Amino acid sequence: MDDANRLESLGYKQELTRSLSRLTNYGMTLSVVSITSGITSLFAYGLNTGGPVVMVWGWIVVALFTICVGLSMAEICSAYPTAGGLYFWAAHLVPTQYKPLVSWFTGWFNLMGQFTAVASVDFGLAMLVGSVISVGVGNWSPQPWHIVLIHLGLIISHGICNSLGPRVLLWITYVSTWWQLFAPVIIAIALLAVGKGEHHTGGFVFTTFVNRTGWTSSIYVVLIGLLQAQYCLAGYDSAAYMCEETKRADIAGPWGMISALVGSVFLGWFFLISLITGVRNYESTVKSETGFAVTQILLDNFGRSWTLVLMCILLITCWLCGLLTVTATSRMIYGFSRDNALPWSHVWQKIHPRLACPLNGVWLACLIGFLFGLPYLVNSTAYTAITSFCTICIYVAYGLPILCKILSPIAFSHGPFHLGRCSSYLNVIALLWICLIVVLFVLPPEHPVTATNMNYSSVGFGTILLVSSFVYIFSARHWFKGPRTNVTTDNELKSSTNSET
């Protein structure tokens, strides 16, 4: 069965252009995961919450459990290769009467996770740009409003590039695939080979524990320190959102998901270790005047000129990550609105006839992504809360279809990629891990807890849960029916036209 017929069997007509191969699906997913962006954004957080030992060994622990999540999702993706992704999977893994309920909550948590992913990637990039300008100009320290304006410019650039059509996007994806691989390797080799860090010892990298949080419990600090790794190893579900633009999607989608995740695990660990060995002065790195710990590490090791060169490599890597995160988010918006789940769904589901992309969905992703960055004007710790909120929402959305698969009386009909006898065991492990990290990442990272350093992701998570529940109970349950076919509708229109003729 070819891709268009496979999609039609799931209830949808082919509207997007299938221009992605297995390689480009993998490359796009690798770019969205982008360990370079994630590690650089939260490196100072890791230095404070456990330090090198938690960052290095915590990465491995998180990676092992995250691969269980990724394998569980890849198996379901192979069975249901649609742009709707997670919410579509959840709806088809439960009896008919529960379809609207599970797809509604899965979709909304996923959507909020995607919006905050756009915000966190681009806002982290904005702070990185600010630190590079600080190094280049000299005596200049970016104010919050400077960072917000840079964030706006980055968001607009990503919206424009996503509005240029599939050919441009395909070319960018090819470039990004190799850039995401080589950029961290180049910087890592430079640090390990010629860096001047004072801690080129295994003892410092693999055994040093640092607690700068104010909490007295080392176990608590270790657990909240896992956020850096878990935030980095997210976004691999983007392979699913691109399935309707991918050839042999029932194979390419899951393999893109798993290969990007596993590749990011190994590449990220190597990059992380190289940065830790480059730490010259722990205190000045954490409290860098440049505003970014990684910038300070490069500055201490290579001086101003080479730091600017290496930081430009990092900037391009993070910019490509932000661009393709907007792409994946727009496809999720398209899929969700196609099933009438968003306000003004008829606007967001439109495919531009010439550009062959959900143009309105692209700019909606950019708008909401920008709005999520505005709290930084009031509270400088808002970025950490956004990353926590992003991780929680995304992983709740990951867990719901896995939970449905475990509990549903409906027999799961797998696709070409499946886990065989290991499926149920991996599903349970994945679900237990998701439950743990959802609890961990709403906890406050610093003590004493104040209005400034509080982890507001708990407020965001509770708000989304309450609002989505309220809307579903009092409104959506009367009109939202879960994933609905648009193939049947087209056939009915044809029949109606023939009868009138």
Structure explained in plain terms:
The chain has 501 residues and is mainly alpha-helical. It has a single domain (3-12, 19-496), classed as Amino acid/polyamine transporter I (Up-down Bundle), CATH 1.20.1740.10. It contains 22 helices and two strands. Strands 1-2 form a two-stranded antiparallel ribbon. Helix 7 packs antiparallel against helix 16 (293-338) and helix 8 (144-161) packs across helix 16. The longest helix has 46 residues, at 293-338. The protein is globular, with a radius of gyration of 22 Å. The model is unreliable at 489-501 (pLDDT under 50).
List keywords for this structure.
501 residues; 22 helices; single chain; disordered C terminus; two-stranded antiparallel sheet
CATH domain class name: Mainly Alpha
> Which stretches are low in confidence, meaning pLDDT under 50 for 5 or more residues running?
489-501
How many DSSP E strands? 2
Number of domains: 1
Spatial extent as radius of gyration: 22 Å
The number of helices is: 22
Major sheet size, sense and barrel closure: 2 strands, antiparallel
Overall morphology:
globular
GO molecular function: transmembrane transporter activity
Keywords: Membrane, Transmembrane, Transmembrane helix, Transport
Main location: membrane
Subcellular location: Membrane
